[in-house]
Amino acid sequence: MKNLIKVILILPAFVFANIEFNNPVMCSNLISDWWSSGHGCIGDNNELYEAWTHTGLGSGEGGIYFAASYDTNQTWSSDITIHYWDQTWVHAEYTRPRLAATGDTVYCIYWLRPEHSATIWHLYCSRSDNFGVSWNIFDISITGAYSGSMNGHDFMIGPDKSVNLVFSTAATWLSRPRPFFCRSNNGGVTFSSPQLLPCDTTTTSGLQPTIAVSNSGTIFIITDYRDSQRGHQLYLAVSTDSGATFDTTNLSPMLGEGMYPDLHIGSNNHLYLCYESTEDEIKFSKSTDGGLTWQTPNLLVSNEFSWAFGAEDTRLIVVWNDDASWDTYFRISEDGGTSWTEMTRVWQTTPFPGDWLQLSLDVRNDLTTISMHPEPGNVEAQYCSHAIWTPGVAEPVKQPRVTYPKLTAVPNPFSSFTRLSYSEKMKQPKILSIFNSTGRLIQKIEFNGSITWNGCDQKGNRLPNGVYLVRADGYEPIRLVLSE
Fold first, then answer.
1. Which CATH code for domain 406-482?
2. CATH classification number, 9-400, choose in 2.120.10.10, 3.40.50.300, 2.60.120.830, 3.90.70.10
3. Which residues in the chain are classed under CATH 2.60.40.3080?
4. Nearest to 151 by CA among 167, 131, 135
């Protein structure tokens, strides 16, 4: 019996939407040599929002700036200041603003340090209650004065309007970055004391966390944990109690090494993940069971320089700069990542020849937007390009799909033993590898169709309660739950 089985199914084949992006529109009135990275998002009623930073080194004009378009990228408001520090701090520096919107409320969370030479950054939250026309600048940074060297942040508004924030920071530039989670239930005015996500801070750095929140309020966080021995390990932390506690699982035994994860949640609470491999590739995977199992990674892009990922429902898009030509390309999926279009140029004529673009991406309603800042750019400013996303047409077609045989475990969960089996006779024995939730290999067992596992490691020591991953070459992995 061959381990690889080919099944002919009637699956919907999509005629993909014809997405055409308009030429980028400058969102900012001010032009400066000191513009920095920006971010954009789409509002409930297709309002377009952009935020960007101006360091103002030596000029006292530094700050977080904002603009809005209420006519789908035709015109933009005059530059609005979200955060403008004391002018005596002429070397203040601001970076990495991120936006999120719900109803008439817009949030912006960003990093700030009062002096360019300082090593300490502070994380701030600002809020507008009138579609970005005016902003409330909260006087204190995140509760508990958590500050330090910045290593990424992300946030999402929950179904209860809570602001769920994850960020990575180090107390000093000599210490290891660690990922934290905190939450605001009063519109960003105050946040809970940041909670350290589970990780080994003695040998591991937690970088670039990304967050998604389901309609039921379940919080999903993926972080790049990096150490010299295992490289980049992607860990998933899940909380079902508003962030009070988290269960953590190492995804790298399933997905391989990964950096710069970007997590979104779509229809039926499916999780969509794009990440960068150590070979500068963009890979995609998804989970349809709340992060318990993940599909085999799909290689989307090779040889990228910078990239962005966006998703809503079952519509997915990835945009990147090619590291050879510096042209900008995209691929889309309209079936939750099962099939993807071929790479397509975003613009037929490159609008910023010789520049690479810092990119962010959003998908909402019938719109998708690319927010960008050209570097090194003779005219450095924030730009926005949009496209109307009209769904493609589905039609039935016969299509082969490759599936793998499945292992079964009875009982599961189990307390004393479980029986692992495969119904078909095997031509030769396989090796079952059992991993704990941190990705550490704890047992290897020769397998010839059926075997009993008693929840012990290779030395016969009883293992603690928890979730264990079983893998065998040519089989779908299975998760086992050991409990008393």
1. 2.60.40.3080
2. 2.120.10.10
3. 406-482
4. 167
Q: Nearest to residue 163, comparing CAs of 122, 206, 102?
A: 102
Per-residue pLDDT tens listing for the chain (484 residues) = 334 444 444 444 545 667 899 999 988 766 554 556 789 999 998 999 999 887 655 455 667 889 999 889 988 887 787 876 555 555 677 788 999 999 999 999 988 777 666 667 788 889 999 888 888 876 545 644 445 566 789 999 999 999 999 998 876 666 788 899 999 999 988 888 888 888 665 667 888 999 999 999 999 999 999 887 778 899 999 999 999 999 999 999 999 999 999 999 998 899 999 999 988 899 999 999 999 999 999 999 987 778 999 999 999 999 998 877 778 999 999 999 999 999 999 998 888 776 777 889 999 988 999 998 876 555 567 889 999 987 654 444 444 444 556 778 888 888 888 988 876 665 667 788 887 765 677 888 887 778 888 988 888 888 888 778 787 776 777 778 787 6
Three-state SS at 88: coil
Main-chain dihedrals φ then ψ at residue 267, nearest 5 degrees:
-60, 145
Q: How far apart are CA 386 and CA 389, in angstroms?
A: 9
| Ranges of CATH 2.120.10.10 domains, the chain | 9-400
Q: What is the reported pTM?
A: 0.76
Residue 299 to residue 313: CA distance in whole angstroms:
21
Cis peptide bond N-terminal to 477, omega within 30: no
User: Alpha-carbon dihedral of residues 118, 122, 126, 132, nearest 10 degrees?
Assistant: 40
Measured between alpha carbons, how far is 109 from 150 in angstroms, rounded to an integer?
13
Least Cα distance to 383 among 21, 32, 50, 42 occurs for: 50
